Amino acid sequence: FAMRSSKLKFDILGRKVKGDKGNVLKAREAGYIKRKDTLLKEHQASGKSNAFVDRRFGEDDASMTPEERAIGRLARTRLRQIKRGSGFNLNDDDDDGQGYDDEEPITLTHGGKPIDEREEERRSAHAIARGRRGMRDDDSDDDMAMDAATTGALHFGGGEDDDGFEPTLKRGDHDTPEENGDPNRRKTKKEVMDELIDKSKYHKAERARQRERDEDLLDKLDDEFKEISGAGLFRAALSKGVGHLKPDGWERDDYDKLARELALESRGQATDRIRTQEEVDAAEAATLETAERARLKRMNASDEDDDDDEEDEDEEEDADDDEEDNDDEEAKEAEEAGEEKEELDFSGDKSDSDLWSDSEEQYEEGEPKPAKAKDPKAKAPVPELPFTFPMPETPHDLEKIVGHLSVEDTTVALERIRKCHAPTLKEDNRKKMQSFLGLLLQRFEMLSGQSPLPVDYLDVLAVNIAAVANIVPFFAVTSARARLEKMAARLRQRLRDGETGWPPARTILLISLFADIFPTTDKQHPVSTPAALYLGNVLAHCAVRSTREAVTAVVVAGLAARYSAPAGRIFPEAITLL
């Protein structure tokens, strides 16, 4: 139970964690010893100003009596004196036979006086001291030792023993200079610290009193200011424009205008995050599918829907009977009543899906309406354009989808095909888009050979070809290079056969399409570079033999300028030909 361990979350081989195991009893014992050595000694020494260690002989031994301490101290003193003076005792008998008995003895001096005389003076001083203390001559040598007062007077006082001599006063731990009668006495550390603490407390209290006085003065000033402002004295000064209180109209107007703008400024509203391309394509495809299902439902209505439509038709017939003479008033009344229904447009100007409604289908299948005046030039409505299309796999499939459509409908149909079959929706849609790009290029070449040129349809195809090329760029480059290689092969073959070799209209339009799709400013491009080389060969090797060929040469030279001008290049062949 004395051992304590901490469980680790992970065990790692070879790792030593400090403190994972410990002995409670040993830790408690170590803490007790540490507090005893530190806190206990600090507690014992608290409140004391100074301390000294008494190293005198016998003071640390409580078993010795005062007489034994005195005898031991005397013996140690004599021994110390013998050790110190033996090295300078020159008058002792020599055992080694080096003494000089015939000569006068050598006398040691100090300060011009023999050592013996100084010894006599010392003894006389001891006698004086004994006389003052009332000691007898037969006292022991230990009693001949000078006390602290005599030692201070003779040794440190210059050796003079005046009658006016006053020894240094002894003071206790808590004595003050006034109590000891000496105001010039050096203060102890405790006294200095006590005085410093008292001064600090005094200054702190003085600052607190000053702060209270300042607060009282501020409160008084606030009360007086309230009285003055309540009387309206400042308002009168501002209205008269006295001194620096004169208002600045321009600054006030600017500030008011800015404050009003900040107050009335509309706050920004949080918006949804920007959707990725995959999410955008999925949302567009879902929208088109939903619209297509709704269109098919309106076109192929069930019997239940027909019953509901018959009820709506009866209501419509009643309204027509009431307003039979004026169709415009009928439309106005229907709008005011909030009826949501649509009428068939016989003019044929609109072909949108909104022209087809359930009531019109019921009119074709159910009972006829009352006879009305009809436009003799009315024609059958144009079929509604589907919202979703299958991906065409052959040129015939593409012809079935867009062959009978107008330019606007062709644009919408091709755009819906791209959205319904975006590569981000399914993995195999990328291959379908590659096949779709090939079909668009074939249709572009086919329409380019017609006369007159369907320029509007070619523009629609060019826009969609560029959009699909951005989706499948690698396949677009491959298809363009294959067509350029065929063009170069046909040019070489015609030149061998002795023909002029000028390209037909479809070739020129296709190269112009490549200039719109691919960059022409690159130093080297897999499509733009072969196309520029083909144009240079045409301008350099094809001969002009007729007016038509001259016009073709000018057109090709202009096409060469489209490839060279953006990059800052020139065609020497075009300059030579022109």
Please describe what this structure looks like.
This is Nop14-like protein. Involved in nucleolar processing of pre-18S ribosomal RNA. Has a role in the nuclear export of 40S pre-ribosomal subunit to the cytoplasm. It comes from Micromonas commoda (strain RCC299 / NOUM17 / CCMP2709). There is one protein chain. The protein is mainly α and 578 residues long. Among the domains are: 49 residues, no CATH class; 89 residues, no CATH class; 83 residues, no CATH class; 107 residues. 58% of the residues lie in helices and 2% in strands. It contains 21 helices and four strands. The strands form two sheets. Strands 1-2 form a two-stranded antiparallel sheet. A two-stranded antiparallel ribbon has the order 3-4. It starts with a strand and ends with a helix.
